[in-house]
Amino acid sequence: MIPVPGAQERAAVRRYRPGDFPVLAALIEAAAAPERSMTATGLREFLDYPGYRPEDDLFVAPSEDGAGLLGARDVRVTARGDETVPILESWGMMHPEARPGGVGPALLVTATQRAGQIVRARGRERGIFQARCATDDLASQRLFEAGGLSQARVLLTILRPTLENLSPAH
């Protein structure tokens, strides 16, 4: 486990292991359901992203009893992957019962450090690290700002709630 100095609570972060899959799925369900839940198949596909190695690029914060996860955060190269300045994106999830101040910052610091390793491994001196959250997710916004990120843009997501009754594509 990687202790993070300065965290308000002694948050321990470690790399994801394949055996963590069920507790990662449970974390996502606890934190995101019902609006943004993910099926087991969807999670497997998410973890099978090209160039992404969950055992190197995904970090978890186990609960004190070790039975579940308090949070998770990853880092992955986005865009084409061959940019002069690599663009790395971080996805993360916090359990609703996790105390603020320790686990979130610990995971963000670890993901940011991993992003730096990825950039250097690609022979680059700098990269762009980005994370996304909902416009009303003030806790994540505060976490990202405290971690040195600043707002770049606000995105609007527009969706069609169903794909039923559509004509076949021509």
Topology at a glance:
Blueprint: E1 2-3, E2 12-15, H1 21-32, H2 40-47, H3 54-57, E3 58-62, E4 69-74, E5 76-77, E6 87-90, E7 92-94, H4 103-121, E8 128-131, H5 138-146
Parallel strand pairs: 6-8
Antiparallel strand pairs: 1-2, 2-3, 3-4, 4-7, 5-6
Q: Nutshell version of this structure?
A:
This protein is of the alpha+beta class and 170 residues long.
N-to-C span: 54 Å
CATH homologous superfamily grouping:
Gcn5-related N-acetyltransferase (GNAT)
Based on secondary structure, the structural category is alpha+beta
The CATH topology corresponds to Aminopeptidase
Average pLDDT, to the nearest integer? 88
The main sheet comes to: 5 strands, antiparallel
Sequence of strands across the biggest β-sheet: 1-2-3-4-7
- What is the beta-strand fraction? 15-25%
How would you portray this structure in words?
The structure is a single chain. The chain has 170 residues and is an alpha+beta fold. The chain has a single domain, classed as Aminopeptidase (3-Layer(aba) Sandwich). 31% of the residues lie in helices and 18% in strands. The chain contains five helices and eight strands; from the N terminus they run E-E-H-H-H-E-E-E-E-E-H-E-H. It has a five-stranded antiparallel beta sheet, with helices on both faces. It has a three-stranded mixed beta sheet with strand order 5-6-8, covered by helices on one side. The protein is globular, with a radius of gyration of 17 Å. It starts with a strand and ends in a 24-residue tail after the last helix. The N terminus is likely disordered.
